[in-house]
Amino acid sequence: MTATQSSARPGPAPEASAPAPDRLGFVVFITAAAALGGFLFGYDSSVINGAVSGIQDRFGVGDGVTGLIVSSALLGSAVGAALAGRFADRYGRIRVMKAGAVLFGISAVGSMMPFAAWDLALWRVLGGAAIGIASVIAPTYIAEVAPTRYRGRLASFQQAAIVLGIAISQLVNWVLTESAGGDTRGQLLGLEAWQWMLGVCAVPAVVYFVLSSMIPESPRFLISAGRLDEARSVLKEVEGPAADTDARISEIQGLIASDHRPRFKDLLGGRFGLLPIVWTGIGLSVFQQLVGINVIFYYSSILWQSVGIDQSNSLLISFSSSIINIVGTVIAILLVDRIGRKPLALVGSAGMALSLGACAWAFSSATGSGDDVALPDLQGTVALVAANAFVLFFAMSWGVVVWVMLGEMFPNRIRAAALSVAASAQWIANWAITVSFPSMAGWNLSATYLAYALFAAGSMFFVARFMKETKGVRLEDMG
Q1: Which of 247, 298, 366, 463 has its CA 20 to 30 A from that of 148?
Q2: Where are the transmembrane segments (predicted)?
Q3: What SS3 state is found at 374?
Q4: Rounded distance, CA 114 to CA 299, Å?
Q5: Are 332 and 344 within 8 A, CB to CB?
Q6: Burial class (CB in 10 A: 0-12, 13-18, 19+), 264
């Protein structure tokens, strides 16, 4: 599937967009600052993993309510993602980043001191809105400031920040639990350990706000707002004083003059309502979630407890999985601009299908019931190895490739609106998987993982049929 309109606009050769060597460090800095939203995204979305057992015990809730509390943030994420593109086009990328940072901070403090389960869920919805904003604004901003030659690697900063946030959240969860005597309900300075887990997010939220105040606005937004002198200054900062900024501004002005502010109706067309390229973006987003990756990051502590591993060790296993997640992401960053997006996605789909199938086989051998569930030694080892292999294959492929693709695959005229729709679809799929897992696992854990394996196999066919390679293609030439 490809977009219905092609592009053959004149513009500088890709090399002209490469920054001078002395400016590359600045480009990396502003990309990393923007990607801090991804760190908060990863931290805030996965920190709940360590808090789940404490929340269940504190408020006396079962599997259904637990699923609703954990997934409540994802509903806010869908709303935040849907609105972020529109707000970014109206108010600028930097202002939206700052708004996201404020929402992260408020949600962290509120989640730290809830008085009821529904109260906690509402604070998580607010934090979810911030996650949704970060999921849209960071890849949009990075794609717009990154030189073509380095765009894939710089866009990968978003996913690198996400997986680092996940890892830090699991490390913090384990440290806090150990400090509280190995119990997530243990007391630390007058609060329970799980409350501190949720509250620590306020610290990186403040850092994100400060750093977003130090980086320049996107030159594309500045030009669209008529702030040409500022745009020229940013382009010189990014590409060096010798860059032909007048040519770059003229090129972007030409695109803006021929386009209009993207709206949802601009995404309509084709046989199934939306443009084919938009359906491709939605498909990539949905498959990324249907393989069940966030079950590992939201529920792995209670997952491993359900098969006989104690609370402290289950948190340590969650941390080790997050380190593997980082390793896989680094591999993807090194390969995404070398071998391309599509080959990585295909390899990842095959690896995920096999490892999830192995997990399904291992969990089918669980014995006992209630608090006395256990896996035989062989199956227990297979489950641990396969689960971590799944994380590795996901991280080195779909974890990075989808975010890179969403930031660059759409034509300029619909990019912000299409990215918002695709990201919203991703959060809805994430919510469906997250809210259903506790009940599905309680019914049949092996069948649940078999379903995820089938989705992983399906993703391989989707990529082969519908995904178009974007390696080395300028944003201005997407279409």
Answers
A1: 463
A2: 24-44, 64-84, 96-115, 121-142, 154-173, 193-211, 272-297, 317-336, 343-363, 383-404, 416-437, 449-467
A3: strand
A4: 21
A5: yes
A6: middle
- Give 367's DSSP letter: B
CA torsion through residues 442, 447, 453, 459, sign: negative
Instruction: Assess contact for 426 and 139: CB atoms under 8 A.
Output: no
| Cα→Cα distances 365→33, 143, 161, Å | 46, 47, 37
Of 17, 4, 2, residue with least CA distance to 475: 17
More confident residue, 292 or 75: 292
Weakest mean pLDDT among 10-14, 177-181, 230-234, 241-245: 10-14
Among the listed residues 116, 121, 113, the one whose alpha carbon sits nearest the alpha carbon of residue 189: 113
Give 3-state DSSP helix, strand, coil % of the chain, rounded to 5. Answer: 80, 0, 20
Amino acid at 353: A
Instruction: Give me the pLDDT at residue 396, please.
Output: 92
* Paired tokens of 382: 């297979």
Q: Is 16 left (phi over 0), alpha (psi -120 to 50) or beta?
A: alpha
Neighbours of 65 (CB within 10 A): 17
What is the Cα–Cα distance from 129 to 395, expressed in whole angstroms?
A: 24
Q: What are the structure tokens assigned to 468, written together?
A: 């178009």
Does residue 45 sit in helix, strand or coil? helix
- 4 has a pLDDT exceeding 70: no
Smallest CA-to-CA distance from 158 within 403, 430, 415 is with 403
Rg of the chain in Å (alpha carbons) = 22
- 410 phi and psi, to 5 degrees? -90, 150
Contact 240, 428 (CB under 8 A): no
Q: Can you tell me the distance from the alpha carbon of 382 to that of 392, in angstroms, rounded to the nearest whole number?
A: 15
